[in-house]
Fold this sequence. Notes:
Shape of chain B: globular
Number of strands of chain B: 11
Number of strands of chain A: 11
Oligomer: heterodimer
Structural class of chain A: mainly beta
Number of helices of chain A: 0
Radius of gyration of chain A: 13 Å
Helix content of chain B: under 10%
Distance between the termini of chain B: 41 Å
Helix content of chain A: under 10%
Shape of chain A: globular
Strand content of chain A: over 45%
Strand content of chain B: over 45%
Number of helices of chain B: 0
Amino acid sequence: EPEVTQTPSHQVTQMGQEVILRCVPISNHLYFYWYRQILGQKVEFLVSFYNNEISEKSEIFDDQFSVERPDGSNFTLKIRSTKLEDSAMYFCASASDGGSSSPLHFGNGTRLTVT
Amino acid sequence: AQSVTQLGSHVSVSEGALVLLRCNYSSSVPPYLFWYVQYPNQGLQLLLKYTSAATLVKGINGFEAEFKKSETSFHLTKPSAHMSDAAEYFCAVSEGTGRRALTFGSGTRLQVQP
């Protein structure tokens, strides 16, 4: 069964550094998402992306965050200047269509640790 | 605005016992509801979804959930727990119009005792 793959599985970075989290969505999917889960807390929506533009974002997704689909397969989340509170598990997800009933397929996540 | 409340952050059952994980939702429009499972060091895997067809929804691994509009609930059940069911379970809601993103509950960690 096709999978969403995320790399790296664990990223350690120093505060103030830029990080790029990478995702390869399922190949025929058109809708892409980033979520994060701070340890012990809820899974929170960050951003959704369709047709090469952001379709929705949460209040968490401020100017320090950006997303990009640089080619036909990758979908990246960039954090420009990391803060300690950015430490979390980041999940990428994709969906075949934009209907609210269409389930999201999630990757295994990237654990980001900011020191 | 949509929201989900999962009652009980930890549930412990004996192997072979009934599993009941509770989820209540709030949505201004008819919702779509989902249950996801997260095994250790893995991503979120879809268990089942409710999309306004049958109110009793069957999913993978013997789980099912019933949508009850009058109670705004979507509880997850399994008649007989297996050791391999130990995981974290998340209920999520998506509104039928407009907002597409899923809103997750805080999760319930299921322990299965031998």
